[in-house]
Design a protein that fits this description.
By secondary structure, this protein is α/β, with parallel strands linked by helices. The chain contains 18 helices and 16 strands. It folds into 2 domains: 247 residues, D-Maltodextrin-Binding Protein, domain 2 (3-Layer(aba) Sandwich), CATH 3.40.190; 158 residues, Periplasmic binding protein-like II (D-Maltodextrin-Binding Protein, domain 2, 3-Layer(aba) Sandwich). The strands form 5 sheets. A 6-stranded mixed beta sheet has the order 2-4-3-5-15-8. A 3-stranded parallel beta sheet has the order 1-16-14. It has a 3-stranded antiparallel beta sheet with strand order 12-9-13. Strand 6 and strand 7 form a beta hairpin. Helix 1 runs antiparallel to helix 14, helix 8 crosses helix 9 and helix 17 packs antiparallel against helix 18. The chain starts with a strand and ends with a helix. The relative contact order is 0.19.
Amino acid sequence: MKMRKWLGLFASFTLLSACAAFTPNNTDTEDTENTTDTDAGTETGTDTTANSGEKIELDFWTFWGSEIRRPIIEEIINDFNESQDEIFVKHTYNPFGDIWTKELAQIAAGNPPDVVINDINATALRGQKQQAESLQPFLEEDDISDWFYPELWEATLYEGESYGIPFTTDTRVLYYNKDLFEAAGLDPEAPPTTWDELEEYARQLDVEEGGELTQMGFYPLYGVGMDVWMLNSAGQNFFDEEGNPQVDTPENAAALEWILEWREHYGVDTVNRYQAQIDSGQANPFFTGELAMIAQTGTFYTQIKQYAPDMNIGVAFLPEREEGSGHTSWGGGFVAEIPKGAKNPEASWKFLKYLGDVHAQEIWASKNFDSVANMEAAETAIDNEIFDEQDSMVYQLTVENMDHTILTPVPLTASDFGNTLNPILDNILLGETSVEDGLQEAQESLERLVESNQ
């Protein structure tokens, strides 16, 4: 995995992505939240009567309330509770849209939860704002930093101190329908590796009947946003290591021009018609065989298994702009933090360490089909007994794709830069400004924003 320190795409940045590519993730299908739970602040865990007065009780907040994820996080909690007799952890579920607002209110009131799941890309920002406890005192005696992908660990650092334990991560890959490839005369074992090949394959996979497109080869903004393709094109983020904007570049211009060419090829009406199907979930044209290729998160595979279990799929790295430019992808994830002012930080640390260790990480990876932060757990999850051959193939690719994945911590000099950049890129897509003028405007606006924050 690659990372540029101080670079970042903040939570609100994603434009047209159906996944949560740049939301406090990932999107991501991490539970944003498809759940039947409607009660905020629901507490669960092992029987609280088992918690004698001698045990320290920790309140652990997550947004994982779905029928799939909630039992898994509670299995991990219960395993921890049964593994020792000093600490009892209870689980409090809060909806994705509420959890962090409530956390900040509780911090201000002097009564925060003991542990909370939070967005990894803004961990350093919360350290700067003193919204999370530094883990440095614990790490000096018990350094576990080498458990995790280095870039994930680095994202937790503010002024050299960690403010969270990486729990999950994610990445974007290319899924394709092998049966449609074969029907179009394409080799189902040889997916496109460059943008030119992607276009060539898509044209062969396009099918028209009666003047209307009935099968689309590929459209770059189904599943990810323009920002992901700009990262893919440039192999770098929108800020350099010193925090200077680097938006107005030939690589970013090439990505935007490329996207506009796709939009012109299919036409706005067709693009919107397919987008409406994607937004409906189960009727996603990739599931129905009306879309041959889609860029999406690794966890998108769980939706394929649910809605199109018999689909013969392939998975590959995102095609590179040109041979040698790199298969750059984007990733985010979540951390477990101790909120500022938590009453039992030593006990909270013991639970954080458990969450980051191999056992808990393997449970989460195998039962959620989710990318985890612990490197050993990510590798060993591939061979667990729950995965079938196709499961293992997809998961293996997502693990390998971490070498191509950029993590994007929020730049501390311009944490809200998405509010500046987003409308400009949107205007480019809508044809209200040219690529050249839009990128120049974006560069100048971000430079002013950084200067105002110094």
